[in-house]
């Protein structure tokens, strides 16, 4: 088995090692939860403080024009585009993933008149399913049907308007075949909506090459833009040209918001998917984190991500009571490792008490996220060692580790 010294040698040769100093992480913590809430970039507090103190505090309302506040959702969208393989005009930053899914799914249904079924993954992050239920509930005869991705083809009949899938499964870390599935869905006459929450910033995402119709994603996971930071949405250029409609027709999606006209006239292009004033403090944090991402080579991120997850799997497989749930094949793996353990919750709590932060998803999955910009091979080695010790010592049986918080 690989030694800690060998891991230190991998760190010394790591082309991404210099990124570690761009993030603030507390001493004594090995952070394996960047797939849930990314770490804080060093420059973010200063950037947010500048928006608060200078742009808001001193410049006040003038900042809408002078500091480019009005343009910010587009500017950030253009900067996210290369991370998801999109054209700059196809992406905008706004609202949350759930709200954005509501908008693009509604638009998709309108683009497929006569079809009323939306297919979703039964195991998906539930908010996506709740939104699909909400959208189809407003369409006469609409229905949202839950399937498993491997049996998708059987369900692709003439009533399916759209399919919503996560590129990477939030629980198991399984990566789906984006181009293959998109092509099959489109061949059946339906539109493909990808949720890239767990793949953006974890691996190169190629929405354009896959000919995806729509996508949504969040920025507070691998993109490190902070709790509650705004999400983004993608609409393929060919659909934008058709002038799709979305139901949250707020003033920021209007062609002339400051004309204050009583009737709604949507903006041309991606702007029609905006609804409200941007949350500029969250957007400032996103801007600071994109400053880091713009210097990162996504291919190097993917290479290191696979090496880190391979390393972790090799160190933990065979531990007592642990089953590796994440696919072994690289082509089917995102940037996290899920381990099944009957007492996963207290085991994760005991690990956190030792400074190794992962998380737990009911009923029995321990999740560990691997973020190549700020995680080293030695940290992964140490984390695996700590997990082995927690299991061998049985310390997770202490009663305090079984008490559950609101958020797991
Ligand atoms: C994190 C995540 C979300 C988050 O939704 P919000 O509306 O931004 O809270 C949605 N979908 C998936 C697949 C996620 O992983």
TrEMBL record:
Pathway: Amino-acid degradation; L-kynurenine degradation; L-alanine and anthranilate from L-kynurenine: step 1/1; Cofactor biosynthesis; NAD(+) biosynthesis; quinolinate from L-kynurenine: step 2/3. NCBIfam families: kynureninase. Gene3D superfamilies: Aspartate Aminotransferase, domain 1, Type I PLP-dependent aspartate aminotransferase-like (Major domain). It is an enzyme of class 3 (hydrolase). It comes from the Bacteria. The gene is kynU. The keyword Hydrolase applies. PANTHER family: KYNURENINASE. GO terms for cellular component: cytoplasm. Homodimer. This is Kynureninase. GO terms for biological process: anthranilate metabolic process; L-kynurenine catabolic process; L-tryptophan catabolic process to kynurenine; NAD+ biosynthetic process; quinolinate biosynthetic process. InterPro entries: Kynureninase, PyrdxlP-dep_Trfase, PyrdxlP-dep_Trfase_major, PyrdxlP-dep_Trfase_small. It holds the Pfam family KYNU_C. The keyword Hydrolase applies. Its cofactor is pyridoxal 5'-phosphate.
């Amino acid at each position: 088995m690989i030694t800690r010294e060998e891991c230190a040698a991998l760190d010394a040769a790591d082309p991404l090692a210099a990124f570690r100093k761009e993030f603030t992480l507390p001493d004594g913590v090995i952070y394996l939860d960047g797939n849930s809430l990314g770490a804080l970039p060093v420059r973010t507090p200063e950037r947010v403080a500048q928006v608060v103190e200078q742009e808001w505090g001193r410049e006040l309302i003038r900042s809408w024009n002078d500091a480019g506040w009005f343009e910010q959702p587009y500017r950030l969208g253009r900067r996210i585009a290369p991370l998801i393989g999109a054209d700059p005009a196809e992406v905008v930053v706004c609202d949350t993933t759930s709200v954005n899914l509501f908008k693009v799914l509604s638009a998709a249904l309108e683009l497929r008149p006569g079809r009323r079924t939306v297919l979703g993954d039964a195991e998906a992050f539930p908010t996506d399913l709740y939104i699909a239920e909400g959208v189809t509930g407003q369409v006469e005869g609409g229905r949202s049907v839950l399937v498993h991705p491997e049996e998708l083809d059987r369900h692709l009949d003439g009533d399916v308007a759209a399919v919503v899938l996560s590129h990477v499964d939030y629980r198991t870390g399984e990566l789906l075949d984006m181009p293959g599935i998109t092509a099959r869905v489109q061949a059946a006459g339906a539109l493909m909506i990808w949720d890239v929450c767990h793949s953006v910033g974890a691996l190169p995402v190629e929405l354009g090459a896959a000919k995806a119709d729509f996508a949504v994603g969040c920025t507070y996971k691998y993109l490190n833009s902070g709790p509650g930071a705004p999400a983004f949405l993608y609409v393929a250029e060919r659909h934008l040209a058709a002038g799709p409609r979305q139901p949250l027709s707020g003033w920021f999606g209007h062609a002339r918001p400051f004309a204050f006209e009583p009737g709604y006239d949507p903006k041309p292009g991606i702007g029609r998917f905006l609804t409200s004033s941007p949350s500029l403090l969250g957007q400032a944090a996103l801007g600071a984190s994109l400053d880091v991402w713009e210097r990162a080579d996504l291919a190097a991120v993917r290479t290191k991500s696979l090496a880190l997850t391979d390393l972790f799997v090799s160190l933990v497989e065979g531990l007592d009571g642990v089953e590796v749930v994440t696919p072994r094949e690289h082509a089917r793996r995102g940037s996290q490792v899920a381990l099944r353990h009957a007492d996963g919750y207290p085991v994760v709590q005991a690990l956190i008490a030792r400074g190794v932060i992962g998380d737990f998803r009911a009923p029995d999955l321990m999740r560990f996220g691997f973020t190549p910009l700020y995680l080293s091979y030695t940290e992964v080695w140490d984390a695996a060692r700590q997990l082995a010790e927690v299991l061998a010592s049985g310390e997770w049986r202490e009663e305090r580790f079984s008490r559950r918080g609101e958020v797991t």
